[in-house]
Design goal:
Largest sheet: 7 strands, parallel
Structural class: alpha/beta
Order of helices and strands: EHEHEHEHEHEHHHE
Number of helices: 8
CATH architecture of the largest domain: 3-Layer(aba) Sandwich
Number of domains: 2
CATH superfamily of the largest domain: NAD(P)-binding Rossmann-like Domain
CATH class of the largest domain: Alpha Beta
Distance between the termini: 38 Å
Radius of gyration: 17 Å
CATH topology of the largest domain: Rossmann fold
Strand content: 15-25%
Shape: globular
Bound molecules: nicotinamide-adenine-dinucleotide
Number of strands: 7
Length: 253
């Protein structure tokens, strides 16, 4: 097994928000990090931050739902950073609408990025993990997996990610690979800012309302999720697999 410091990690959707915080944390933990997002140039700030802190990182542009782009991206990471044995499937989008207003495109786009994207990235990366006899996959689910008004597409995708996580855990366990999911509650990012905008509520006001209804009376920050990812990918977490961890300031967010 390679030493922890030489391991390469891929974080998808890492140009901003939760993905950027996860990439930064893994860089600080000693991983060489591939900061992957749709637009390679959008990854510069995350990469520069990791490098400035003494870490190693590269920017990779790819659409996680495009099979050829995913294969090429994973091979590029293997060539530039070494075999990617850590994968964080974080890329995501929302296209919220009540069912009667939800278009087929709203449905397909969301399922495509979250579910097809996590499937394709996991399939491409597992070859390197099984070769190494060690690997960690962490998938981003959501409290919306339990149901959320206006999110039929997103909640179906996030519940699907929990099923994907458990099945991959069963299939890949014998290769030293763990697969877990994190289900965040309300985290302050561009995604939740857009939700507030859609609802016609100021972002500050939206956050205060959400904090009030959360048992730990605050909203979540991207670092709250990065901390949980850091645990799941650690060497010591080798007997924890197929789990869904709600990081939501309460049992249900
Ligand atoms: N913010 C929250 O409250 C919250 C709660 C639960 C779950 N999540 C999940 O956490 C993850 C990150 O969310 P965020 O809040 O940081 O969102 P965000 O919108 O700030 O960032 C998402 C990133 O994913 C990238 N992306 C989108 N489609 C892509 C694709 N096809 N290929 C590659 N990259 C793509 C975007 O360009 C963006 O940089 C998502 O999976 C989201 O569903 C977020």
């Amino acid at each position: 097994m390679t030493s922890r410091n030489s391991r390469a990690a891929i974080v998808t959707g890492a140009a901003r928000g939760i993905g950027a915080a996860v990439a930064t944390r893994l860089g600080a933990d000693g991983f060489a990090v591939a900061v992957l997002d749709l637009d390679e140039s959008a990854c510069t700030a995350t990469v520069d931050g990791i490098v400035a802190a003494g870490g190693r990182a590269v920017a990779v542009g790819a659409d996680v739902a495009d099979a050829a782009a995913v294969e090429a991206a994973v091979e590029r990471v293997a060539a530039e950073l070494g075999p990617p044995t850590v994968l964080v499937n974080n890329a995501g989008i929302t296209r919220d609408n009540l069912l009667f207003k939800m278009t087929e495109d709203d449905w397909d786009s969301v399922l495509r990025v979250h579910l097809r994207g996590s499937f394709l990235m996991s399939r491409a990366a597992q070859a390197h993990m099984t070769n190494a006899g060690w690997g960690r996959i962490v998938n981003l689910s959501s409290t919306s997996a339990l149901g959320n008004r206006g999110q039929a597409n997103y909640s179906a995708a996030k519940a699907g990610i929990q099923g994907l996580t458990k099945t991959l855990a069963i299939e890949l366990g014998k290769f030293g690979i763990t697969v877990n999911a994190i289900a965040p509650g309300f985290i302050v990012t561009e995604m939740t800012r857009i939700t507030a905008e859609r609802l016609g509520v100021g972002f500050e006001e939206f956050q205060q309302a959400r904090a009030k209804e959360t048992p730990v009376p605050r909203v979540g920050q991207p670092d709250d999720i990065a901390h949980a990812v850091s645990f799941f990918v650690s060497v010591g977490a080798s007997y924890v697999t197929g789990q869904v961890l709600y990081v939501a300031g309460g049992p249900r967010g």
